[in-house]
Design goal:
The chain is 51% helix and 4% strand. With 538 residues, the chain is mainly alpha-helical.
Length: 538
């Protein structure tokens, strides 16, 4: 359906570029007047803006895909590895002057995604016939901004995207206040959605304009954010988790919040996948000598548990070059993960007689499946929800047992592999594969609380890589501490051999928004990789 929608909106998407690049940054007075004029014909603009912000949030370049999601978050949690210390800095906790790696998520969110979303909110607020457009945009605003605050901490929120109101140096809100407002927004928006009223229709690339689906997504996001507070404020965490469950979270894979893609053009393809296939990742032209490899931590765990997702995730280089060679080159026993602590020179201390061609022995992300140009962008999955419900049950906050929800989460992810191209070549029978895995690796319901948390959130970690939602995996790892990762200690790293806890604020904030930037670091702590954000407590 989305392929049809995108073709239908092709000309409209061209107009979006004009709106986002020219009109919005310049705070065009004509647009502002339209915002104030109740008789202005705004609905086509609203639909186009919503389509645009969805596509931008999924990614249209490096800024919010390869840089923060893979080179940073995906490297911190040891999905990726590289011998190239300059290009894949997150593997070794380096900065290397790579400002774009640090700034991309922030700049993309505030300069485009949020501006478009805020325009929708401004245009629809108070209009009874646009109650769904208004409240869906509020939910989407939370989706955009919770990722940013989770990576940086305190940030502009209440005054963000307020250029039309003359606010060009927004204050930084405390993350505790941001979370309180995001949860309020989700609750109010979910309750206000009305299935009898118009919505975005085909302009909604996530749920086709279905208010009931957005309500489910709102409560599922509430579950995610509620769980984020388990260490910093257990009472509020319990309150919001219970509210989310009562409101109605995802019940099946049909509820997944995602954007589907085609490989037809740069507008439509999955940009995370696209960037992983460039010179910075695993381009077929490199013939196994590309910069990016899969980490030994990930590969070793999947092999040790005989996880059926291993060939879905990984292949040797020939499997990426030729689909006809995928099955044989993705065989689990052939996979080999690259340790993160080495570069092109020091790897010779690990492997005698090292030469560059030996890079081919290490596994790459499978660009015919999870990193295919047509792989969906998953904002939140049913599998994730079930793992969070497993923890809720373990804490006594939800119904069912942790074991039941854990198994549902695992099965959900195996079944969702069918959403990806060529998955059947490496997981021909996902239902059987899931049953066999759970029989061989049973959930231990009599274990300690900590051990059950380890089981749940190690599976969460494995699942998030399959959905390329590495930013969420990094957030969940910081909250739970699972899996227990052994950090690298590469010479000259920025953290003393400790895994990063956040990204730094963009340098432009210190230069252009100095007063508010200084207030933020006074409140939160030094603008360093190891400074813990509000909810990230030891």
């Amino acid at each position: 359906m989305i392929n049809y929608i995108k073709r239908k909106f092709n000309s409209r998407l061209l107009a979006i570029g004009t709106l986002a690049v020219l009109i919005l940054p310049a705070c065009d007075k004509g647009f502002e007047e339209m915002n104030k004029n109740p008789n202005a014909f705004t609905e086509p603009v609203i639909g186009s803006l919503f389509s645009a912000t969805i596509v931008r949030h999924a990614g249209v370049g490096d800024g919010n895909t390869l840089y923060p999601n893979s080179k940073q978050a995906g490297s911190f949690v040891q999905y990726f590895s590289s011998l190239n210390a300059f290009q894949w800095t997150g593997v070794k906790y380096l900065y290397q002057g790579k400002a774009d790696y640090n700034n991309g998520l922030w700049n993309t969110a505030f300069n485009t995604e949020l501006k478009e979303t805020q325009q929708i909110i401004n245009l629809t607020k108070g209009k009874a016939d646009m109650i769904n457009q208004y409240n869906i945009a509020r939910i989407w605003r939370v989706q955009i901004l919770h990722r940013v605050t989770d990576m940086y901490g305190d940030m502009p929120y209440s005054e963000a995207a307020s250029g039309l109101n003359g606010i060009y140096k927004p204050k930084y809100d405390k993350q505790a206040d941001i979370y309180a407002d995001m949860l309020k927004e989700l609750e109010e928006s979910a309750k206000a959605l009305d299935a009898t009223k118009p919505s975005y229709g085909a302009a909604d690339f996530v749920y086709g304009g279905t208010p009931a689906k957005w309500k489910t997504f709102a409560y599922s996001l509430m579950l995610r954010l509620g769980m984020r507070m388990t260490k910093v404020d257990p009472a509020k965490a319990e309150l919001w988790v219970k509210k989310a469950i009562a409101g109605g979270v995802m019940q099946s894979n049909s509820d997944i919040a995602k954007l589907t893609h085609t490989s037809a053009s740069g507008t439509n393809w999955n940009w995370d996948s696209r960037q992983l296939q460039t010179a910075e990742g695993v381009p077929p032209s490199a013939q196994g000598r590309g910069f990016s490899k899969l980490n030994k931590t990930l590969i070793d765990y999947l092999q040790a548990t005989n996880d059926p997702r291993l060939p879905f995730y990984a292949t040797l280089w020939r499997g990426n070059i030729s689909i006809s060679e995928l099955a044989v080159n993705s065989e689990p026993a052939k996979q080999k993960g690259l340790p993160g602590n080495y570069d092109y020179t020091t790897i010779a201390t690990l492997i005698p007689n090292w030469n560059a061609d030996m890079q081919r022995d290490f596994s790459e992300v499978n660009i015919n499946t999870i990193a295919h140009l047509e792989a969906p962008t998953t904002f939140q999955s049913y599998a994730e929800v079930e793992y969070l419900l497993a923890e809720a049950a373990l804490r006594g906050w939800g119904s069912g047992t942790a074991k039941e929800h854990y198994e549902k989460g695992f099965i959900a992810h195996l079944m969702a592999t069918s959403l990806y191209p060529n998955a059947g070549l490496v997981i021909p029978n996902p239902s059987s594969a899931a049953a066999n895995y759970l029989a061989a690796n049973p959930y231990n319901a009599t274990a300690t609380f900590g051990e059950q948390m380890r089981q749940i959130h190690t599976q969460f970690w494995v699942t998030m890589f399959g959905q390329m939602n590495n930013i969420e995996s990094f957030a969940n790892w910081r909250r739970t501490g699972y899996p227990a990762l052994i950090p690298t200690n590469y010479p000259g790293n920025e953290t003393g051999g400790i895994i990063q806890r956040r990204l730094r604020y963009p340098d432009a904030e210190a230069a252009l928004n100095t007063v508010n930037y200084n207030a933020a670091i006074t409140a939160q702590g030094p603008d360093l990789f190891l400074t813990r954000i509000w909810w990230d407590k030891p």
